[in-house]
Amino acid sequence: MNDNSLKLPKFKYHPNVYDKEKVLDAVQFDNNVCQCCGNKTDVYVSTMYCSGEVDCICMECVANGKAAEKYDGEFIQYAEEISDEEKRTELFRRTPGYCSWQGEYWLACCDDYCEYLGDVGYAELKEMNLVSIIEEYKKVEGMDFDNEMLEKGGSLAGYLFRCIHCGKFRLNVDCD
Ligand SMILES: [Zn+2]
Ligand SMILES: [Zn+2]
Fold this sequence. Notes:
It contains 5 helices and 10 strands. The protein is α+β, with helices and mostly antiparallel strands.
């Protein structure tokens, strides 16, 4: 985090997006020029799901929807279903994605998207007393693996979400 991040837009569904320790590779910290607004920036996203070539979109152009409009694209690949189309627009077109093997799969709860807290593995979940959500994930998905194999940013990687209404933690897992 640098001083500049105090002025950066905040994202309801992605509260830790500028925290490099918690969220791996969702944003780039580097001097560049936003190809949407032409302003200099030192924090930006470098990917988008769209037909054009995108490598630098500043956080303002993500947050205000200008990049999604200009490139007719989205920042999120998949999400669970919810009923409110406005919320879908906010997530897909005005929220930066996160880095994963097969593309984002944003979890939902209480008919709204969860907030994405960051990349996790067994060690991080154990530290947070959340190992039970690994068991829950395996049960729901009908999968089996050793909990220790789950590694932050690893080939079996965990993604931690929390419901912004009931506070329930949920896990998604992705492998290479
Ligand atoms: Zn911009
Ligand atoms: Zn909930």
